[in-house]
Every structure is written in C-alpha cells, then in structure tokens.
Design brief:
Structural class: mainly alpha
Number of domains: 1
Radius of gyration: 20 Å
Largest sheet: none
Strand content: under 5%
Number of helices: 2
Helix content: over 70%
Order of helices and strands: HH
Distance between the termini: 48 Å
Length: 86
C-alpha cells in the first residue's frame, strides 16, 4: 500500500542557490535589455523618434533592475564564500 505524498515544508535556499537564481535572472534581464536595444535602434532608423525614446526608457529600466539583482547575487556569493572559509 502506498501513501499519498505528504506536504513537507520547503527548505530555505542556500546562499549559493540564491546566487544561482540571481545569476539566472540577470542573464534573462540582460538578454531582454539587448533585445530592447536592438528594437530601439531599428525603430530609431525606420520609424518615429517617440517610440524609440519609449524603448530606450524601457532599456534603462531593465539595465537598472539587472544591476540591482547583480548586487544581490554578489552579496549572496560573498556570504557563501565566508561560510566556506575557515
């Protein structure tokens, strides 16, 4: 007789796991930023400048967010490093 899987509380992520999650988010956001930059460049060449400006503003927000996430990842990485030292 098999029993139904029981709900087990989720283990908190280690700093290393958090750092990897942040690194993945950084990669995703930087790729989105690159795509926005490419789109904005095309729009600036072929369409109105207002739409290109809007895209560049989006790009700036994506890059700012990526920098914030990168900072969190570096902090988590340093915590992991300190735990393995000694």
């Amino acid at each position: 007789m098999t029993s139904a899987p029981q709900d087990t509380p989720q283990q908190p992520l280690t700093d290393e796991q958090k750092a990897e999650q942040y690194a993945q988010k950084i990669r995703e956001h930087l790729e989105a930023a690159r795509q926005l930059a490419a789109d904005a460049g095309q729009l600036a060449l072929h369409h109105g400048h207002a739409e290109a400006t809007r895209r560049y503003v989006q790009l700036g927000k994506q890059l700012e967010f990526s920098e914030k996430i990168r900072g969190h990842a570096e902090t988590a990485d340093m915590r992991s490093y300190r735990h393995t030292e000694g």
